Amino acid sequence: MESNTVNKALTSFTATGKTSDDGDIASVMGFSGFGKKARTFDLDAIFEQTRRTAIERSQRVIVQKSDSSSDSGSDSDSDSELIGPPVPPQHAAQQGDDDDDEHVGPPLPPGYTGSTAHSDDDDDEEGEAQDDDDDNPVKKIPDTHEITLQHGTKTVSALGLDPSGARLVSGGYDYDVRFWDFAGMDQALQAFRSLQPCECHQIKALQYSITGDVMLVVSGNAQAKVLDRDGFSVMECVKGDQYIVDMANTKGHTAMLNCGCWHPKIKEEFMTCSNDGTVRTWDLNSEKKHKSVFKPRSFQGKKVIPTCCTYSRDGKLIAAGCQDGTIQIWDRNLSVHTKFHCRQAHTPGSDTSCLSFSYDGTMLASRGGDDTLKMWDIRNFRKPVNGVSGLTNYFSMTDCCFSPDDKLLVTGTSVKKDEGNGKLVFFDRISFQRVYEIDVTNASVVRCLWHPKLNQIMVGTGNGLVKVYYDPVKSHRGAKLCVVKSKRKEKHAEALTQDYIITRKFLHTQVCWKHFSEMLVHIGMAASHSGCRFISCTCSVELRYEDCGGHLSAVNSHVQETI
Question: What distance separates the 2 farthest-apart alpha carbons in the chain?
């Protein structure tokens, strides 16, 4: 009977899709119900209620704003309702202007006559001017301020700055290498150390490694040296055998060095070039022999002397400028044949004084002894991209370098004594137009260095000066650290007085030096008359009289009167 009732309920459920009476099914199946019934929501009603609420709220806000504006208008129109002293005329006029312009913020000062309506335009103009300054590389040259470091009286032929820009080294024809610490210097601008690492040889090049912990010193002898940050020797390259004809078979250079530099990526490797006609690479951990040898050759296959050398920015290429006017570039791993070779880069017989790669690694600048500056594209190395002449060069180490943004090229000019000022000349990299120049001093500009982190320019001159150009806003640290420190006061030595003790049998007293000297004079006179002699020691004076005869009383009286 019960099974027939359940079957009927299920049949009716399948037929209609739902049960007509939940209570009957629940009672038949033996439980009270199917659980809590789910809530149902009328979404259309909810959305309509929300819309009405928003409209009512907006209407209330509009009514409140209109009421407040009408109240403020009535307050401003009725002067009788003001409480307190009358408003000054200037302030009242200013309030009127503020009400008209609807300004927000504190009131303007009394004497202000400008219109804030133009402030936005001024800001826009300033922004455009700033953009123009960013596009104009000349505006980035830090030359508003300068300091002068006195290296000596002879030519500053080498400059080096560590990667962090904290320490500067300078070397010259006076054989000295001076260390300058920007953080430790004051306005006296004195070097904290000076030494002669290569004895009586002129300094040709100085450069810190990429880590800044050691420094390469290239001088007029055949052996380069590596010093630490404090000037102590770390390594000295071995000298080769000058009686061997093939320079590749010697362990080191056999003639005067001309230039040297560190590898830009490998901190233990550096390179030197010499009058023996070779360019050699060295390992800091192996001083007994060079690492590899590159031999420049002329068009006829003869030996030529490299006067300068450098690595590319990625360290994969080695470039050398030679006395025959050629520029030869090798792959660092292939030392036999050149990868790029320009036969007539500069006038034969002139010393190419500097080679410098751009920061993007595509361009090469060369400073020639023929008074020229040229730009080369290493992707098309047959002829220069740009060039300029008339830049006098009397030194075999005159520098050229790129600006940190790679848009300018900088070099120095040489002058004879009392014939003008040496200049630092700036050229646009693309157009190669002379865009700026700085009168440095009444001597030649030999070395120039533009540090990318400090944004400061270091210049070495022919009269023994090192000048540092900087801008208080555009530059960082460096010279800015020492110019703000006042000079230290000199310590004066204090005069010290010492008491002396005079001893004579029954006499023991203290006298000053003046009385002591006078006493000796009197005693000497009396003793000479009486034929006596006195004996003195370091710590005291003991008077002994022997064979004085009848003059002993006279001596005693002189001694007592003096003391």
Answer: 174
Q: How many helices (H) and strands (E) does the chain have?
A: 8, 32
| Cα–Cα distance for residue pair 496/489, rounded to 1 Å | 21
- In the numeric block, the tokens 């420190």 are attached to 485
CB 215 within 8 A of CB 226: yes
pTM of the model: 0.64
The full DSSP string for 345-365 is SS-TTS---EEEE-TTSSEEE
What sign does the dihedral 328-332-334-335 (CA atoms) show? positive
Residue 361 to residue 269: CA distance in whole angstroms: 20
Give the pLDDT mean for 101-107: 55
Computed from CA positions of residues 295, 301, 302, 304, in that sequence, does the dihedral angle turn out positive or negative?
A: negative
Structure confidence at residue 336 (pLDDT): 78
Query: Does the pLDDT at position 501 exceed 70?
Result: no
DSSP string, 185-232: --TT---SEEE-TTTTS-EEEEEE-TTSSEEEEEESSS--EEEETTS-
Task: Report pLDDT for 433.
Answer: 93
The model's pLDDT over 192-246, given as tens digits with 9 standing for 90+, comes to 999 999 888 999 999 999 999 999 999 999 999 999 998 899 999 999 888 888 8
Contact 200, 175 (CB under 8 A): yes
Distance of CA 176 to the CA centre of its chain: 23
Read off the tokens for 531.
């034929």
Query: Which alpha helices (DSSP H) does 78-187 contain, by range?
Result: 89-101, 119-135
Q: φ, ψ for residue 402 (rounded to 5)?
A: -95, 150
Contacts of 501 (CB under 8 A, 6+ apart): 508, 509, 510, 539, 540
pLDDT at residue 514 is higher than 60: no
